Amino acid sequence: MPRGVSPLDEALLQRRLWTPAQLRTALWLDAADLSTISTATGVSEWRDKSGNARNFTQGTGGTQPTLTPGALNGRNVLAFNGSQWLTSVNTAATWNFLHNANGSSIFAVWKAGNISNPNAIHGLMGTNGATSANIGAYIAYDDRAGAPRNNGVLVQASGGGSTSLGAASADGLMPANTPVILSHIADPNNGTAANRSFVRVNKTLSQINASTAAPSASNASFALQIGALGNNTLPLIGYVAEIIILASIASARVRQQIDGYLAWRWALRDALFTGSPFLNRPPLIGD
């Protein structure tokens, strides 16, 4: 390779770059791939790259997020202004794996808040409208002074009045107005409460779930939304660059591959933990 070619470009040129296409993903949304995005007033459809046709749409112009070119490492993101979201075209039951006993793995590059101290909740995704009285799951950023919480992450899996997984991270886990790599490994049927939820933001792991209810086998209350928590609840101010979801508990190797792929693609290599095998190069096919 010529001098000055980055390890990422080298892997791309040699067609050796590992991507989520090597996995059996349940959902893969990629704002940098213009072939997956349709626009009207804003983004009217964001199409799934997993092969499952789990696309997300918004028919109301004023509620469509904005495609923002070159916002992160020269790549596009979808920006949300606090009154915008996208909703799955699939039934709510499609997303039951996010809260039932099967377990799931979610990875996202996103930014919550456009100021350093939002004093608000900003929803990344959800199917239960952020209430345990419903059935489903959600992930959100929380910076409410009245809670009190400061730059934390909330996750929940609920079963209509009970929670099999519910955790508020330690303060300071997720900085506001800053792009991060977030991952959540949900194992709602694990016999050890603390092992039901693993939230990682960049290098830092939070593992503080205390909920012990049995996971629900019923259908989610709402279809999955991106940029809100289900039923248009607690919409996001910020942006989303890429989301990868597995309907299973990712192995340590797969977690490293996905983190490495996202870190190199979105110029977030500082997010990788010290022992990552992908500090100096992106993951390659065969790793």
Structure in words:
With 287 residues, the protein is mainly beta. It has one domain (7-271): Sandwich (Jelly Rolls), CATH 2.60.120.200. The protein is 7% helix and 33% strand. The protein has two helices and 17 strands. It has a nine-stranded antiparallel beta sheet, with no helix packed on it. It is globular, with a radius of gyration of 18 Å. The two termini are 20 Å apart. The mean pLDDT is 96.
Summarize the structure.
The chain is mainly β. 7% of the residues lie in helices and 33% in strands.
Write the layout of secondary structure elements.
Elements: H1 7-13, E1 27-30, E2 37-39, E3 43-46, E4 56-57, E5 66-72, E6 75-81, E7 86-88, E8 104-112, E9 121-126, E10 135-142, E11 152-159, E12 163-168, E13 180-186, E14 197-201, E15 204-206, E16 225-226, E17 237-246, H2 252-265
Antiparallel strand pairs: 1-17, 2-3, 3-4, 4-7, 5-6, 6-17, 7-16, 8-13, 8-17, 9-10, 9-16, 10-11, 11-12, 13-14, 14-15
